[in-house]
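Revision sheet: structure tokens.
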Amino acid sequence: MSQYVTRLGRRSPAAPGRLRLPGANRRPRRVAMLSVHTSPLHQPGTGDAGGMNVYIVELAKRLAAINIEVEIFTRSTTGALPPSVELAPGVLVRHVDAGPYEGLAKEELPAQLCAFTHGVMQAWAGHRPGYYDLVHSHYWLSGHVGWLAAERWGVPLVHAMHTMAKVKNAALAEGDTPEPAARVIGETQIVRAADRLIANTSEEADELVRHYEAEVGKVAVVHPGVNLDRFRPADGRAAARQRLGLPQGALVPLFAGRIQPLKAPDVLLRAVAELLDQRPGLRSNIVVPVVGGPSGSGLAKPEGLQKLAARLGIADVVRFQPPVGQEQLADWFRAASVLVMPSYSESFGLVAIEAQAAGTPVLAASVGGLPVAVRDGVTGFLVDGHEPAHYARVLRDFAETPHLVDRMGEAAALHAQSFGWDTAASATADVYTAAVHEHRRRVRSHHG
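Predicted:
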């Protein structure tokens, strides 16, 4: 991986011998951040809101703390919101009118990109020239607006994919809808247009080069962070279980996230059914919380998972919980014996780090960024594929070896400490600085 700007996310801000980039004193002062399809003010776990929302909010706050102002442009989804909201000192969220507020699916948003771009340009027109130093777009829809804005303003474009159509289509869940060709074309254009691409992991960096022919020198690896003040072991598992009304000695395998085929919550339910077939005595001592709401292709059958639990004969042990705020989510993590993530695709899997930071091991599919997030055999277990029997086997180990939860939980909390947001923000600022420097050099040589 030495060909990339590697492991940036792992360097502590004051690390000796830290990567110094030419023109390092030219950090951008103000960044226009674009998140078209999901607002940083939305509740993660609802609709299209998920890890990316958390990522944008936390990154923006930490960038502001190191004197890089951030303005986040997002699509208005209700008329009740003011045009702009201060999220934190130095972080402004601007709501852009583009299409109807309610009932617009993510798939219908490409048709609104022109209206969204118009709103971004209107905001920019009210400022003096050179107001924004850089554009940072998140997800391919924002990338198209970012491409145009960066060109118009004469500033560099930094883009984060978060997920990629070609990667998702290569690992589709059964019955899930493939990503459309228009998205593949759109992503290819953005990869070519961006000055810098931020990948969550070295695997994602490789995928950008392999699937989208990204220039190796344009790709920087920055691990997302976790809010270590919020996600921590705190007063422990027993206290969290008491608060949430969960039995103390029970095995509690938790699913937390959007309910859609991609995240594969059905694999957990099938694994639990298999486990109870093998160990019927466990039925009185297991609770399976599913925390999250239907999303994406899961909206077609919002009751699908409840019906599956009933069909498998485990409705009595599964607890469906609507999405919860970050503070309460941290409590669910603390209360769980293990977080289960059988996803078909994850660019990083932020919840895996959040759960570990709260002192809980993770059982995950060995896909995407999860092998970086989880240390197999130390902070949890990685499983190849989505065979419920394989997940059932690991759950049985947790049930039969109770101290495994505590031992792995301690290692998990320690492992998560290296994923602080300050580190990620500092690394992102380095990427910005390199993009600004190179952009200026290119402009100078063009005019020279």
